[in-house]
Amino acid sequence: MLRKKGYLLILALIFVFSISTIAGAWWIFGGNEQATWDKIEEEGKIVVGMDAAYKPFEFQDENGEIVGFDVDVLKAIADKLGIDLDLQNTSFDGIIPGLQANKYDLIMSAMTITEDRKKAVNFSDPYFDASQVIAVMEDSNDIKSVDDLQGKVIAVQLGTTGDLEVSEMEGIKEIKRFDTIPEAFIALQNGQVAAVVNDLPVTKAYIKEHPEVKIVGEALTVEQYGIAFRKADTELMEKVNEALAKLKQEGTYDKIYAKWFE
């Protein structure tokens, strides 16, 4: 009899554990649509994942504070929603897995909207137009267009659309992938690579401080940036889209753009 009771107790515990596990998985993978926004309202803040090494979109200033175009747009969105910001600096190649693991509520990190990424996350309405360009040293004459990348060693940031674009090219001698884009440019300046393929606004910002680097050829792509959300968080996405639309209508977005790009 005691053995039977013990057996039944074990079965009951297994059942409770199974239900808890299923409930947890449901929250993570599809049932947290209401819960995420409720959590944000309750805590009074929104947690954002970004790779703060991508000037002028997100980077750390001399005081270690994360600043940039994306940050200012986020602050304006947060003001519209009546909440505070909690910015989490993270590597770009692991940023979508981090979102899916609930480390933050959304991603805003100069992320290009792509079909592959849409399989993993939902995107807000586009908030920035960009493109991929080729950067070389000012005294370089070997590379003038994309055709000249054949047989060369090219630097990119790991997991970016620059990485994806170069990976599809034929005839590249080697692709060196770096965790941050400043590391890729340092490799260029040290002669470790022949060129860097990267987003135009970030490359232009780097050239302002390093005129020994130049852009060559035409843009390789036409891209748009979006804010990324977990698939279930449609309510949060709608609220962010509404706030973003208001910022554009009232001229706040244009003022932020002028601050960082004009």
From TrEMBL:
<dbReference type="Pfam" id="PF00497">
    <property type="entry name" value="SBP_bac_3"/>
</dbReference>
<dbReference type="InterPro" id="IPR001638">
    <property type="entry name" value="Solute-binding_3/MltF_N"/>
</dbReference>
<keyword id="KW-1133">Transmembrane helix</keyword>
<dbReference type="GO" id="GO:0016020">
    <property type="term" value="C:membrane"/>
</dbReference>
<feature type="domain" description="Ionotropic glutamate receptor C-terminal">
    <location>
        <begin position="45"/>
        <end position="262"/>
    </location>
</feature>
<dbReference type="InterPro" id="IPR001320">
    <property type="entry name" value="Iontro_rcpt_C"/>
</dbReference>
<keyword id="KW-0472">Membrane</keyword>
<protein>
    <submittedName>
        <fullName>Glutamine ABC transporter substrate-binding protein</fullName>
    </submittedName>
</protein>
<keyword id="KW-0732">Signal</keyword>
<dbReference type="GO" id="GO:0015276">
    <property type="term" value="F:ligand-gated monoatomic ion channel activity"/>
</dbReference>
<dbReference type="GO" id="GO:0030313">
    <property type="term" value="C:cell envelope"/>
</dbReference>
<comment type="similarity">
    <text>Belongs to the bacterial solute-binding protein 3 family.</text>
</comment>
<feature type="domain" description="Solute-binding protein family 3/N-terminal">
    <location>
        <begin position="45"/>
        <end position="262"/>
    </location>
</feature>
<keyword id="KW-0812">Transmembrane</keyword>
<dbReference type="InterPro" id="IPR018313">
    <property type="entry name" value="SBP_3_CS"/>
</dbReference>
<feature type="transmembrane region" description="Helical">
    <location>
        <begin position="7"/>
        <end position="29"/>
    </location>
</feature>
